[in-house]
């Protein structure tokens, strides 16, 4: 049984993330969406508990997918949960350059962890959590970019966000 981990901040989860989750969930026996708490990354729009709740709500009907939160090194988390595969989504060449370095570092820190890259579907290749937050902050409609659970939280956070 292959246990894979899809790590990220997911602040907020968007449809590109969901595309990767669905596809990785079909490949691996067990997929953990691991929501990162990284105090070095700066302020998040949503705290870890809120992000975990959003992801859980979105993936609750996807067989073999679970959600967890972690802090610290991904290599250590992988050992702790006995996972052997890291899943990373790629939108562009620039993502690959960064993720390739991280894959090598993770492999150095945990030789039993392999990284797999899944290309995001073309229709979501332009979506990022940063852009979703920026657009939502200005009250524009992001309903086509995020799952309903994320949209609800964004509307709560940014009072006056347009309905889809």
Task: Give structural notes.
The chain is of the alpha/beta class. It has helices at 15-27, 48-59, 74-81, 93-109, 129-137, 148-157; strands at residues 3-8, 30-37, 65-71, 85-90, 114-119. It has a single domain, classed as HUPs (Rossmann fold, 3-Layer(aba) Sandwich), CATH 3.40.50.620. It contains 6 helices and 5 strands. The protein has a 5-stranded parallel β-sheet with strand order 3-2-1-4-5, sandwiched between helices. Helix 2 (48-59) packs antiparallel against helix 6 (148-157). The termini are far apart. The mean pLDDT is 94.
Biggest sheet overview: 5 strands, parallel
CATH class: Alpha Beta
Based on Cα principal axes, name the global outline.
Answer: globular
- From the helix content, strand content and strand pairing, which structural class follows? alpha/beta
Cα(first) to Cα(last) distance is: 41 Å
Mean pLDDT: 94
Helix content: 40-55%
Q: Quaternary state, please?
A: single chain
% residues in beta strands: 15-25%
Order of helices and strands: EHEHEHEHEHH
> How many E-type strands?
5
CATH topology name: Rossmann fold
Tell me the layout of helices and strands.
Blueprint lengths: L2 E6 L6 H13 L2 E8 L10 H12 L5 E7 L2 H8 L3 E6 L2 H17 L4 E6 L9 H9 L10 H10 L7
Parallel strand pairs: 1-2, 1-4, 2-3, 4-5
Helix pairs in contact: 2-6
Task: Summarize this structure briefly.
This protein is α/β, with parallel strands linked by helices.
